[in-house]
């Protein structure tokens, strides 16, 4: 969003509507953002719209996890098989994982605190921001979203809830990771045996290293879809309110607290 072309430019904006999603400032709980980084590095940064940083941290965690077989070691340790966990864990790369993991938690928390401060400044400035964006590839606009619909679609297939609220970048990542997890973990085949009551065969075919990524991806898609549907609806209401005040409300109009219209 180029805000330096007009001599009447503003310093801070609440939102920017782009063809691939709506970037907005709103109040966030930094602790929740940090906890999503605990669940999977990069998720906290996706929630605060730092996509390049989020992608870097996400794929770093995924790459190191695959090299060290960390998920498999976690599975063995949760089952009390400490010897097997030590045997499968690759110590050669595990110490590369820890600093980046801690950085993701710290940086997402710090940035969430900063963005909360920027939100307060932007809200006081009442700067105009676009509510409609068109490109040869995609179209996006502000409108009301139903959070429960976003949640239901996210529960069916990860990424559908994000597509509903037009978070294209997050949806692409979620969909690609879901496809990889389903294919390499044999999750559908294991579910088939589970539904048939053949639990031993279901345990045999499931790939724990890949499958343990799924809970983080699945629940992140649900949270991301629901939370942003709520905030996008608030943003739509705010933009409509500001537009009507600016164009139709008399500057001499005063509504006192408790007064009925």
TrEMBL record:
<keyword id="KW-0812">Transmembrane</keyword>
<feature type="transmembrane region" description="Helical">
    <location>
        <begin position="164"/>
        <end position="184"/>
    </location>
</feature>
<feature type="transmembrane region" description="Helical">
    <location>
        <begin position="33"/>
        <end position="60"/>
    </location>
</feature>
<protein>
    <submittedName>
        <fullName>Uncharacterized protein</fullName>
    </submittedName>
</protein>
<feature type="transmembrane region" description="Helical">
    <location>
        <begin position="205"/>
        <end position="223"/>
    </location>
</feature>
<keyword id="KW-1133">Transmembrane helix</keyword>
<keyword id="KW-0472">Membrane</keyword>
